[in-house]
UniProtKB/TrEMBL annotation:
One of its GO terms (biological process) is methylation. Belongs to the CFA/CMAS family. Residues 17-81 form the DUF7884 domain. The keyword Lipid metabolism applies. This is Cyclopropane-fatty-acyl-phospholipid synthase. The keyword Oxidoreductase does not apply. It comes from the Bacteria. Keywords: Lipid metabolism, Methyltransferase, S-adenosyl-L-methionine, Transferase. It comes from Marinobacter manganoxydans MnI7-9. GO terms for molecular function: methyltransferase activity.
Length: 422
């Protein structure tokens, strides 16, 4: 019965491309129009058709991890791309919509992240072996979207582009106090301290990230200029000239958005500038994929722009600039996926095969989501005063020399009242 029901569902779902399913009883059925993309998956457990119908988003990843579902040529990317493309085109997958709506109703509970729970969620992902991250990230361990200015940019170049653009949007000057919320392994904070003369305080809930960030600061002789704390952002005291948060807002949770932006407002000086860099969704509010929640980012959620701005509007902060990065993260994840797959033997020496398949599913599914399923990156610049930043975006193009103030036609912007940056 379950095979028959799943087959009916797949016939309705797969309209573009070709999906071949080899069922546990040996039957092979093709779905779709026979075009590309195409993939063949094999079921090795009789319970799989039932589980896929009941909870497909969770079961697909679990079955791949456990080996009860395999893909010919191990073309996991082709399978997920095929499924996502067809899911985006179909409107009659009613039980999938029902499940998504149910998750959205319960998302405030799923994303309730007080300090203790937030730290456990962070440890689940970021306190893994440091060697794992060395195998697929760039040497600076930038674990967020890179910025590909040119088609030929390497991952390392694109990550430097990202850090430089963030510094430009912060309009940094030497000796300014910068708060880095969710500082990771310290790469951005060290960049701002080393190349712009900022005095950086970075906070993270990951013990591993904190340890490595501190070690890096000492090794570079920046221990007095870049300090890193194992601390919740809600416990920070004092005020700062600049605040930046990259790849951390996804862990805040909808119930805590007011708290987050109230913290930004209270910690930011009256003439200060803040920059929020976060994954978001282009198709409106939703809910987190259950497999991602269970295995990768517990308590995590990527918001719609409407969800962010609705809270900012009530926070006493001005939105001074918004930029949407579309396919940059897809390209970043492609680089990470290729490096991870090239290092699978090394990963197997650290973790078991199930972990390797889990991590591969995570990287592949994430890349496909940014290419085909409406995930983007938002960079939102915020300030307390309307004139805290220049009146045009020209300064972003003109701040091309590290550590120097922006200029417009050879004139220092900070000396021009119409482009006053402070």
């Amino acid at each position: 019965m379950w095979i028959k029901l799943l087959s009916i569902f797949l016939k309705r779902l797969i309209r573009q491309g070709s999906l071949v399913v080899v069922y546990p009883d040996g039957r092979s059925i093709q779905y779709g129009d026979g075009s590309t993309p195409s993939a063949t998956m094999r079921f090795h457990a009789h319970s799989l058709p039932r589980k896929l119908l009941i909870n497909p988003e969770l079961t697909l990843g679990e079955a791949y991890m456990d080996g009860t579902l395999t893909v010919d040529q191990d073309d996991l990317y082709g399978l997920i791309e095929l499924l996502v493309i067809n899911l985006k085109r179909q409107s009659d997958a009613w039980h999938l919509r029902w499940q998504a709506n149910l998750r959205q109703l319960h998302r405030r509970l799923a994303q309730f992240n007080p300090a203790g729970r937030a730290q456990r969620n962070v440890a689940h992902h970021y306190d893994l072996s440091g060697t794992l991250y060395d195998l697929f990230l760039d040497p600076d361990r930038q674990y967020s979207c890179a910025y590909f200015r040119e088609p030929g940019d390497t991952l390392e170049t694109a990550q430097r582009n990202k850090k430089s653009l963030i510094a430009s949007k912060l309009l940094l000057a030497p000796e300014q106090r910068v708060l880095d919320i969710g500082c990771g392994w310290g790469g951005l904070g060290l960049h701002l301290a080393r190349d712009y003369g900022a005095r950086v305080t970075g906070v993270t809930l990951s013990q591993e990230q904190h340890r490595i960030a501190e070690e890096r600061a000492r090794a570079e002789g920046l221990g007095d200029q870049a300090r890193f704390r194992l601390q919740d952002y809600r416990d920070i005291d004092g005020t700062f000239d600049r605040i930046v948060s990259v790849g951390m807002f996804e862990h805040v949770g909808v119930p805590h958005y007011k708290e987050f932006f109230a913290t930004l407002r209270d910690r930011l000086k009256d003439d200060g500038v803040a920059l929020l860099h976060t994954i978001g969704r282009a198709d409106g509010p939703g809910s987190t994929n259950p497999w991602i929640t269970k295995y990768i980012f517990p308590g995590g959620y990527s918001p719609a722009l409407s969800e962010i701005l609705a809270v900012v509007e009530q926070s006493g902060l001005y939105v001074t600039d918004v930029e949407v990065w579309r396919l940059h993260y897809a390209e970043t994840l492609k680089e990470w996926r290729n490096r991870f797959e090239a290092s699978l033997d090394r990963v197997r020496s650290i973790y078991d095969e199930r972990f390797c398949r889990m991590w591969r599913f995570y990287l592949v599914a994430s890349e496909v989501a940014f290419r085909h399923d409406g995930l983007v990156v938002f960079q939102i610049q915020l300030a307390k005063k309307q004139d805290a930043v220049p009146l045009t975006r020209d300064y972003l193009a003109s701040r091309d020399r590290l550590g120097e103030p922006a200029t417009r036609d050879g004139e220092n912007i900070s000396d021009h009242p119409a482009w006053n940056a402070n």
